Amino acid sequence: MDLQPDKLEIEILDDPKEKVQWKLSQINPDLNPQNDRWIISFGTKDPREYLEFTGENNVMQLRSFYQSEKFACERTPFYKKWKWTGLLIIGSAFVAFIASVYLFALPHFVKVMASKVPQDWENSLGSAAIEQFLLVEKPDTVKSYELNQFFGELQFVQGENIKLYFVNSATVNAFAIPGGHIVVYSGIVDKMYHYRQLAGLLAHEYTHVHFKHSLKMIFQSLGSYVFVSFLVGDLIGLSTIILDNLNSIRNLSFSRKFETEADDNACKLMIERGIDPKGMLELFEILSDPSGAKKQNIPTFLSTHPLTKDRIQHMKENIKSHSEPVNENMRLMEIFERLKQIDSNNYNITSMNNQDI
Description:
Elements lengths: L1 E3 L2 E6 L2 E9 L3 E3 L7 E6 L6 E6 L1 H10 L12 H4 L1 H34 L2 H16 L6 H14 L8 E5 L6 E4 L3 E5 H4 L5 H16 L2 H9 L1 H10 L2 H10 L1 H5 L5 H17 L5 H10 L12 H5 L4 H12 L9 H12 L16
Parallel strand pairs: 7-9
Antiparallel strand pairs: 1-2, 2-3, 4-5, 5-6, 8-9
Helix pairs in contact: 3-8, 3-9, 4-10, 5-16, 7-12, 7-13, 9-10, 12-15, 13-15
């Protein structure tokens, strides 16, 4: 074998006159040689030719003669060559993992936690929240009584302690607070003309309470705070954070899933009690704006309970799939008419039987 600057000349033992020349540019040394053994190959395509050098002196002679990088004695380890690239890849993967946890796992986690919190904790949170709300919005005691009477006649409750508050305000809205508190504004009731519409509204809001939609939305909006609070077991601190953000929490928009679930269950509750479920559709029509009013005039209820064409169509199909008989409920009609016409200033407060609103 003859080492030359630009090639390796190899003699064939069986025929000394025949020589094979390997151009240096086409020689590929083993990337992981041993001190006393090194294999090199020749060619750019398979099948390639191979030559094995054995003995530490032979290996060192080959490396010493050819000083190019591919024959260098001190080869740069792979991990050093790719150090920064590797760190960048690992860092990017970590960021992607954290982002996926925050976007996908965390929302699921907080919704599950909302279903697992002790009822006493939710009740305490709700009591503190409604107390804070009532410092700003003063409920109409008389109409709140009538509203609670109306809700009681519906017999929706499945173990919860539900309390309703009627607020005289042009605001077209109604919302539920964790712990079983439902607030209804006169602005939305004034637009109603039949008790089944009020029944539909209360069935919808009650479902948000029953399935803890409000609590789940609150937890989801505070994501990381909820995760850390549960991690360290600090539910008191979580309550403080929620109460500090109460105003923004009241304006949270329910997800399409929660709205569909509330609509479907409201329809089911009404049908089971013989109340015409078309009250839900009529409520949608009342809240929608067929005249094409400006966006700033959209009822507050629609900003937190998005009313889409799909949602309306889904309700129509839901109602059409049921053929159960409906009956006029004279008691609900009576309370509804009284609620619409009553003058709280001239109402005989003793007729309320000292009901605590």
